[in-house]
């Protein structure tokens, strides 16, 4: 993911880290003007990439696509597919409806500094000169966001600031000064200062304190210029205005990528977060929010990516994680399983859950994948890299250079450390939104989320509905333009040839089976025979997205056993209705 900021002056919207205020102004970053591309902190947080040579691309060995058999176990009990894996971020109602999106996330870098009491004040942090601003909003931007999400049929996901300070006003001239290029270790445990920089003056200049618990009476109308902001009071305000979950806000995430605060929000939080810091911060704010809306689901720790799963920001040290003193001080245990275990212990002692879903961000790290690149090599790599989500035999073709096996790995940590916790991936994208390979990759990502049992997921930010990637998304949530969806019970399905990926589902409320098929090859047509094992009469319809198209084209089939033709880099859904 990359930051996008205007090269000329002014306070505007950015892609990366997300400016939550952009949702109500329409599409993000589509205005005119030159842009400067900045390296995203996710990439800065990685282990010494310059010392890790990416692996050579494996040879592509596709099967015999002239004769592909896809076998569906239509009568398997299967397992439920969460409808909340089809989420997006910062989308307006029309986009939510067009895509059929089920969750709309208020998040990203700027959400860390949002002052809900003011309603329209943020600090852009390193994304834009550490300036305050309002992104063109008046009134309560968050209330408007929730209203818009509900109008679009989506469940709102709200990010709760927990950094300790939020923007004091929306004056674009209010700006932190003298901010170092990056943060560092605190001068002493608990100290806000690092060597050569104390954030106290910039905190006073740009921000007001933001605390977890309001010591006084609750109100839904705090003073916009309040000397302090309370986050449990925000949760209270949202429940009073919109109702408790599931009627109003369904999810609360405790901040955004706190493992990168020292890089993104250096002006107010230069001290790198330790294992202990990450735990105490989460517990303090999550418990406070849960007290105001016990039926809402709480998400954390909202980590930025691969390196943060294994180490704290404090582990960065002076040698880019090589000695990782903080991890060593915790018995050498990777950060994320340690954190899960500690939250489980705290929750057990308290007698209630503060964590409902483990929440991480994940972007493919291979060169060019998360971009608009569409040369043949990147197209193939983009599609292959989806395997990092689930395939323990796939060595990631990036600086990671090992088996990611993301979803099984995270689910394994959950089972070991805090059974019963769900799994959320609240930022992801495979790039190539306007290219055929992006459509194939996204179709496989969404299919994998359902097949692997992810509980919630939100794309960053959203695939344009009238793009190839948007068509792939709609194939799961609105494939006929009238709200038809992929089934909600995942059932076993296999393809006897590599090069054709398949996902199948049954509907729990009617006799319908849906099969999604992708042709992963750039130049081979696939001839596919479906075997569903149905014995009665059935009606079948094919819905297909041709390579590079944003249109879903329906074609009636004579029967569910009709041979299918999958053009190169196409995505197809076959709907079979019994009776």
What descriptors fit this protein?
TIM Barrel; eight-stranded parallel β-sheet; 579 residues
Quick summary of this structure?
The chain has 579 residues and is of the alpha/beta class.
What does this entry look like structurally?
The protein is an alpha/beta fold and 579 residues long. The protein contains 14 helices and 26 strands. The radius of gyration is 24 Å and the shape is globular. The N terminus is likely disordered.
Reconstruct the topology from this structure.
Elements: E1 3-6, E2 35-38, H1 41-44, E3 68-72, E4 79-80, E5 87-89, H2 93-99, E6 103-106, E7 122-123, E8 132-133, H3 141-151, E9 155-160, E10 165-167, H4 200-206, E11 207-211, E12 229-230, H5 231-242, E13 251-254, H6 261-264, H7 275-292, E14 297-303, H8 306-310, H9 325-328, H10 335-350, E15 357-361, H11 376-384, H12 406-417, E16 422-427, H13 436-452, E17 456-457, H14 468-477, E18 489-491, E19 493-495, E20 500-506, E21 512-519, E22 526-531, E23 538-545, E24 553-557, E25 564-566, E26 571-578
């Amino acid at each position: 993911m990359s930051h996008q900021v205007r090269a000329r002056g002014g306070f505007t919207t950015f892609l990366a880290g997300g400016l939550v205020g952009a949702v109500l102004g329409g599409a993000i970053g589509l205005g005119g003007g030159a842009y400067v591309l900045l390296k995203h902190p996710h990439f800065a947080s990685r282990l010494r990439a310059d010392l890790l040579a990416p692996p050579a691309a494996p040879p592509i060995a596709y099967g015999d696509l002239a004769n592909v058999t896809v076998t569906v176990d239509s009568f398997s009990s299967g397992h439920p597919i969460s409808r909340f894996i089809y989420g997006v971020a910062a989308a307006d109602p029309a986009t939510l409806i067009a895509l059929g999106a089920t969750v709309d996330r208020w998040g990203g870098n700027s959400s860390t500094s949002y002052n809900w009491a003011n309603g329209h004040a943020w600090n852009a942090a390193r994304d834009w000169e550490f300036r305050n601003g309002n992104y063109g909003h008046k009134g309560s931007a968050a209330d408007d966001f929730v209203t818009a999400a509900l109008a679009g049929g989506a469940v709102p996901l709200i990010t709760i600031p927990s950094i300790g300070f939020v923007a004091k006003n929306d004056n674009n001239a209010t700006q932190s000064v003298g901010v170092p290029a990056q943060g560092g270790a605190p001068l002493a445990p608990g100290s806000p200062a690092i060597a050569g920089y104390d954030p106290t003056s910039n905190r006073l200049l740009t921000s007001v304190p933001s605390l977890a618990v309001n010591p006084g009476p609750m109100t839904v109308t705090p003073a916009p210029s309040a000397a302090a902001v309370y986050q449990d009071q925000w949760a209270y305000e949202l429940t009073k205005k919109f109702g408790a979950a599931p009627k109003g806000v369904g999810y609360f995430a405790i901040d955004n990528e706190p493992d990168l605060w020292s890089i993104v929000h250096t002006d107010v939080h230069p001290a790198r977060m330790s294992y202990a810091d990450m735990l105490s911060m989460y517990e303090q704010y999550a418990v406070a929010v849960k007290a105001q809306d016990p039926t809402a689901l709480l998400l954390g720790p909202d980590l930025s990516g691969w390196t943060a799963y294994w180490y704290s920001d404090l582990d960065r040290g002076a040698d880019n994680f090589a000695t990782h003193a903080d991890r060593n001080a915790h018995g050498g245990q990777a950060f994320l399983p340690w954190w899960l275990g500690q939250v489980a212990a705290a929750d057990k002692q308290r007698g209630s859950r503060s964590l409902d879903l483990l929440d991480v961000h994940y972007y493919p790290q291979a060169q060019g994948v998360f971009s608009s690149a569409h040369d043949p090599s990147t197209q193939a790599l983009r599609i292959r890299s989806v395997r990092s989500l689930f395939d323990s035999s796939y060595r990631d073709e990036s600086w990671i250079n090992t088996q990611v096996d993301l979803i099984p790995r995270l689910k394994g940590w959950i089972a070991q450390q805090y059974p019963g916790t769900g799994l959320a991936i609240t930022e992801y994208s495979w790039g190539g939104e306007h290219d055929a390979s992006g459509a194939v990759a996204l179709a496989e990502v969404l299919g994998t989320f359902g097949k692997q049992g992810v509980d919630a997921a939100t794309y960053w930010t959203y695939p344009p509905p009238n793009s190839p990637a948007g068509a792939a998304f709609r194939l799961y949530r609105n494939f006929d333009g009238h709200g038809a969806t992929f089934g909600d019970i995942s059932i076993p399905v296999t393809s006897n040839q590599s090069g054709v990926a398949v996902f199948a589902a049954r509907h729990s409320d009617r006799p319908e089976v849906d099969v999604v098929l992708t042709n992963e090859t750039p130049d081979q047509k696939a001839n596919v025979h479906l075997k569903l094992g149905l014995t009665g009469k059935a009606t079948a319809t094919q819905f297909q997205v041709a390579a590079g198209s944003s249109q879903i084209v329906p074609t009636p089939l004579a029967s569910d056993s009709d041979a299918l033709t999958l053009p190169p880099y196409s995505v197809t859904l076959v709907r079979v209705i019994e009776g």
